[in-house]
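Reopening this one. Same input as before:
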Amino acid sequence: MNFNPALIVPELYQFLLIMALFVQSLGSREWQPHTERWMPIFAGLGFMVSMVSFGSEGLMFWGAYKVDLISQFFKVAVAGGFFVAVVNASRQPSLAEAKRADYYMFLALSAWGLMLLSSAVELITIYVALELSSYSLYAVIPLRSKDKGAAEAALKYILFGAMATAVALYGFSYILASQHTTYVAELAAKSWAWADSPLAVVGLSMFLAGMFYKLALFPFHFWCPDVYQGASNETAAYVATLPKLGAVVVLVRLAALLKPGLEVTTILAVLGAVSMTYGNLAALAQKDVKRLLGFSSVAHAGYVMVGLVAGTAMGLAAAAFYSMAYVVMNLLCFWVLGRVGSDGRNISLDDLKGLHKKAPGLALSLAVGAFALVGLPPTVGFIGKFFLITAAWNHGYNWLVITLAVNSAIAIFYYLSLVRYAYAEEGEASNAVVPDNSMFSVAGAGILAALVLVLGLIPAPIFDFAVQAGKILLP
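Same output, byte for byte:
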């Protein structure tokens, strides 16, 4: 077994952080309040460690674990998202003091699983890393004091997760029986046409179901709006963002096996079209903002499929870039929701009335996030969709690109309703709680909003790196 610790410094650092949190959770109750003092600092240090390790390459553990450009790209995104999620949760009002160390430990464990998932290039390794990242979330979702909806959300997440896991494992058995290998590199040399290996096509479709569940792609999306609504605002911010990165990196690696026109590729395209259409239409009827963002995530899962089915390095790069952009945009929106609902309650559209007067900084940041999710320039949402469209056009799925454009127009109605309620609606908000207007609140929203704009104005450095990674997967 070849093992080089220098290649997995981000993973080792995250593991040490988990161990420190484990000791903290076993310690005296007097230790618990101290967790929020040092945790954001060490989460930020973890982001810096992942940046320093950027560019490492190597193959370990009998070829099952690969450190390459695409894995490092996603590890940096996971570490950055984890840092923002930790800072966002540091003032969580609905979490009991005695459970704070446990809460952060499970979040760190989930992020560690996503890092492992980024480098997994063997199907069983992928499955184990996926479950490691998922099981941690089963524990944190119900941690919302005096709220039965959180327990209901956790139960739904577990049940749908168990179903997706069972389907994925059943599909794995079909792949192993037909292709006689579980390594992605060896699977890439196999035929995935229905005429050559129907059992393999069925198996791969079923195995991908586990990724579709994490991505909230139709028809594996049913848990998503209910879990977002039931979990606390800070927990929903994590669940809505980072697990998507883990699903996308696996889909990017497996999509490298496929070519436009194959049956599995066509299935991905059809599911993508249905997902974006259903998600946007369902979001139009929502009044709870977290449910709205839940159905929105179903639509964005469909957008990612546009890049995956292109069958080119540019398409894979566009999917990777858009998933990162989605994380930033959603973290911004959930940050604002958490600050507006400063007592931990769910926020409805009516609660946003007059926000521009009560918290002008938060209102402006929410507008930036909404414009980005719509895909308006000069935000990262616009340039992300532009990359998806240009990468997929004239590669056999022009109808899917047109579907994306139509759905982006539909999405304008409900995304901009967030801005309309915050700026144009008169009257008192139904939420009597005053938004958090502290420097911490406004500065965090401002930094995330600036990041959304900067990535939209200067996307080339990150996108060019994603293209290089895609070329390695598709030589």
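So the earlier flakiness isn't reproducible anymore. For the record, Residues 5-473 form one domain.
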